[in-house]
Amino acid sequence: MENLILAIETSCDETAASVVRNGNEILSNVVASQIESQKRFGGVVPEIASRHHVEQITIVIEEALAKANIVPSDLDAVAVTEGPGLVGALLIGINAAKAFAFAHGLPIIGVHHIAGHIYATALVEEMQFPLLALVVSGGHTELVYMKEHGSFEVIGETRDDAAGEAYDKVARVLNLPYPGGPHIDRMAHEAKRGVEFPRAWLEDSYDFSFSGLKSAVINYKHNLEQRGEKIVPEEIAKGFQDSVVEVLTTKTVRAAKDFGVKQVIVAGGVSANRGLRESLRKALEQEGIPFTAPPLNLCTDNAAMIAACAAYMYEAGVRSDLSMNGLPGKELKSWIGENDNLRQS
Ligand code: KG4
Ligand code: ZN
Fold first, then answer.
1. Ligand 2 centroid to 139 CA: how many Å?
2. How far is the CA of 44 from the centre of ligand 1 (A)?
3. What's the rounded Cα separation, in Å, for the pair 14 and 303?
4. Residue 12 near ligand 1, beta carbon < 6 Å
5. Which CATH number applies to 128-293?
6. Binding-site positions
7. Homologous superfamily of 4-119+298-344
8. Which of 19, 14, 62, 104 has the alpha carbon at shortest distance from 310?
9. What is the mean pLDDT of each run of 10 residues along the chain (345 residues)?
10. Could you identify the atom of ligand 1 that is nearest to the CA of residue 274?
11. pTM as predicted
């Protein structure tokens, strides 16, 4: 494959732009995080996220082009996250991409955020099909089966909270700053023992549920407080993380075996979790199934993953147009297969 893509990602609280060559060579990967300003509110406030994107987007795009040492006429296409995400946040990236594409006469490609997370793998190594992706982020917990490039089948998903959302909510209960995932991860590693919390297996389903676990943590803390007993946050963090990691690992390994995949990958912000990475690596090694976890900066939201995904879409002839809209609930659909008119709906 031969192409040069500029990608923009603004679906949540990172304003990001990146230039990627041939779907695997990162020429630049600029991420302006808003975490510092969202911290004060203990989470992402959509209106504040949008304002930040407006302030940052032009600077971030210019920096991505400058760092890549290219000019717009070198590019083959502009890619942008079309959804899912916060609609106001998405629209800022989409409008910037449209303006850029229009001004420079470039095609525009709308990318699904989760497909982007999965294609972070392509920046590390060639993807091996059939492949199983565990996507765990602040907004998503999904098991996705891919029989080839551009083919996505969601075989399991969360029925309530996303894994990252559960991490952030439990962190809040423990008075930890936003985003809570990394703090719980660190504390879990410091603990000698963990509190015993339930695991939501949902029988044979590949679906997930984390809201019961979150309630169990809240009740446990509440009970100790009422009895005037000492709370050890590290032990709560470890108990919570052990439950999340065990369920994610067990279901992923079972699905990998059931579907006979050649590779398992993990993606999304929560895949930065050391406990989860170690557990998946160990369990899949035992089964002899190759496992890839991209480096941490490619696991959390970034535009290089959007560019990598767009590179394959570009090769397949997929194009969007200037009528593109932000799709907060965009479904993960294959870009090859039955509705293969080489356009996205
Ligand atoms: O993919 P991402 O950057 O944004 C979304 O698309 O949601 O994921 C952000 C999520 C947050 O919920 C954050 O707490 C979680 O990823 N996270 C972690 C860790 N690092 C980030 N969760 C657990 N352990 C970590 N080390
Ligand atoms: Zn994400």
1. 7
2. 12
3. 9
4. yes
5. 3.30.420.40
6. 113, 117, 135-139, 168, 181, 185, 273, 301
7. ATPase, nucleotide binding domain (3.30.420.40)
8. 19
9. 97 93 98 73 77 89 98 98 94 97 98 97 97 94 97 97 95 93 96 96 96 96 96 97 98 98 96 95 98 93 97 97 94 78 44
10. 26
11. 0.93
